[in-house]
Write a structure and sequence with these properties.
Structural class: alpha/beta
Helix content: 25-40%
Order of helices and strands: EEHHEHHEHEEHEHHEHHHH
Mean pLDDT: 97
Number of strands: 8
Strand content: 5-15%
Strand order of the largest sheet: 3-4-5-6-7-8
Largest sheet: 6 strands, parallel
Distance between the termini: 40 Å
Number of helices: 12
Radius of gyration: 20 Å
Bound molecules: acetamide
Low-confidence stretches: none
Length: about 325
């Protein structure tokens, strides 16, 4: 719901977040945001379909849109310009100012009020501007703020490097470098959601010729996105510590819902199956037939899916 390039949800106590910070997007253009009522409607729509929306406000980095909206949130008291590029890591809330914690408390409270689910995602990724101690000082306080609202913290795997409240959910995303910290966090009572970028990021291109998407974690053909096992992904993190998988779809290269569908389908079906079927019941040779059989359904629904040549579309099984 927030990033460097835009703030996307109405917060009544901090109206400039959307009035200023919501008015941009990657590459320029008008941006946009959810009203509180619009977000509540989305939560209801999902809930009617047995889906829990987990709100994420990325902290303390990925915050340029907020920093541009309120000068007081900056250490120097000066708002930076709005940002429409795609490099990230450069922004941070000012961890030494009390108003920062008031801001976080009010944002978390107002979003928690329209989010009936048990979770609140506080981001925590890609903070290049702070020392480890500054990061820890901030994130320890933010965890307490979230707990005060009765929510369980979710954070990207960088949070595994700081003291965590019991039951905190660490979301694995970096293909390498985070394993030891995640394993240690699990030893201290954290649980894990797996979304390794090189297997589960739907914004990775299928192959070198894919026009949409990115390739910083490599190319991700349909077979590779299906053929991995959560239980063996991170050494020291066993089945009992894993509560699920997520397949993120970052949208800085995607301008339309057809673009979104093209990157999501067919890979999203495979990760759903990884989430609900044990490893010994999964095999690409058999799965590809069942996947191909989805063609009629997706065509009827008007879904702009990628017709991967390795899948026998129109298959019967
Ligand atoms: C992330 O992709 N920065 C979580």
């Amino acid at each position: 719901l927030s990033d460097d390039q835009g703030w996307r949800i109405e917060i009544p106590s901090w109206p400039d977040l959307t009035a200023i910070g919501g008015g941009t997007q990657v590459g320029g253009g008008p941006g946009g945001h959810y009203t509180q009522e619009g977000f509540a409607e989305l939560v209801r729509y999902a809930s009617d379909r047995f889906i829990t929306i987990v709100p994420e406000i990325d902290l303390p980095g990925h915050t340029n849109a907020a920093l541009a909206s309120y000068p007081a949130l900056n250490c120097e008291g000066v708002a930076p310009s709005l940002y429409t590029g795609t490099e990230v890591g450069f922004s941070s809330l000012c961890v030494d100012k009390e108003i920062t914690y008031q801001f976080v408390e009010e944002v978390v409270r107002e979003i928690a009020a329209v989010s009936p689910g048990p979770y609140f995602h506080i981001g925590g990724d890609e903070v290049e501007k702070l020392s480890h101690d500054e990061y820890e000082q901030f994130m320890v306080r933010v965890q307490e703020i979230v707990a005060m609202q009765g929510k369980q913290v979710v954070g990207w795997d960088e949070i595994a490097e700081i003291p965590l409240l019991p039951g905190t959910i660490v979301q694995h995303w970096r293909p390498s470098g985070a394993e030891d910290a995640i394993a240690q966090a699990v030893e201290q009572g954290a649980v894990v959601v797996l979304s390794p970028a090189n297997k589960a990021y739907l914004d990775m291109k299928y192959h070198t010729g894919t026009v949409l998407g990115l390739n910083w974690a490599g190319y991700l053909p349909v077979e590779d996105s299906y053929s991995w096992t959560p239980e063996t992904m991170v050494s020291g993190v066993s089945d009992e510590a894993i509560i699920g998988v997520e397949t993120p779809l970052w949208s800085e290269t995607l301008g339309t819902l057809d673009d979104v569908a093209y990157m999501a389908f067919p890979r999203i079906a495979g990760i759903a199956e990884i989430g609900w079927s044990p490893a010994e019941k999964r095999a690409w040779a058999e799965y590809r037939l069942r996947l191909g059989a989805q063609e009629a359904r997706w065509t009827a629904l008007g879904i702009n899916f990628y017709r991967a040549p390795e899948v026998p579309w129109s298959a019967e099984w």
